[in-house]
Give the backbone structure.
Amino acid sequence: MTNTIVDAVVIGRNEGDRLLACLASLHDQARQIIYVDSGSSDGSVAAARDLGARVIELDMSLPFTAARARNAGMAVLARDCALVMFVDGDCTVDPGWITAATTFLGDHPDIAVVCGRRRERFPDNSVYNHLCNEEWNTPVGEASACGGDALMRRAPVQELGGYREDLIAGEEPELCLRLRAAGWRIWRLDAEMTLHDAQMLRFAQWWTRARRAGYAFAEGAALHGAPPQRHWVKETRRSLIWGFALPLAIALASLFSCWLLLSLLVYPMQILRLSHRMATTSAVFSVLGKFPEAQGALEHRWLRITGHRRGLIEYK
């Protein structure tokens, strides 16, 4: 399958030099590069055209989501394109990735999506970048989902209607869930795929990103939480228990006895428990992250009750 036509869809906004590096990394790997821009003001549109990309400028009077951008890019692909590489504009693609991925898909006709190792470009610039780098390091083999960077068979993705455009986050796992339900498989290779530049240097950025994850958990559970999928039900429940219900219960109980505040020791105990299977720093932020995740989950439930939807939750 190494001769199968591969086109690329890149999405971004105000990515500057990172976008140029992304497009350059694809030039010798994809036949055509579609760049979908979502209202950049830094000259990204002109720069992408200068590098030979076909540019789609989204109508920003409509609600924006990354899912909508990816669908817009896929909609203009040539009819003979069988495989599409989706890439975020703050990533560069490894020179050997697309050849390795297409070869693998050629040998495995039941696999619709293949992804590899996504790494942070500057993991030592901040603890938050380091945490992202660890987050990307998921197990090799059959997977339940991919991230924003992945090589996909175009036909099954289009047959299922593409990405769900109303999701502000978590659109890739939701698409993969529908693909798996249709009989396809998702696979992660032990191969370098992309370098990502999170530029997450402040605690507030990390908190916002975790809040977005909690919102995505709750939205995913609302869509596909029923059996057999139970999509993100456990993650939502865990966030709400550790980040909301438990601290609220301890606070109310302490009104009757201040000694009950000692119950807060359950949090450092949880960190110690998690430290047996992950680095201490990761364990600390895993526990701390339940608070912004709960905030996002509660926000989703409130908006669902009131019949409203929110826009993107962006951390940079």
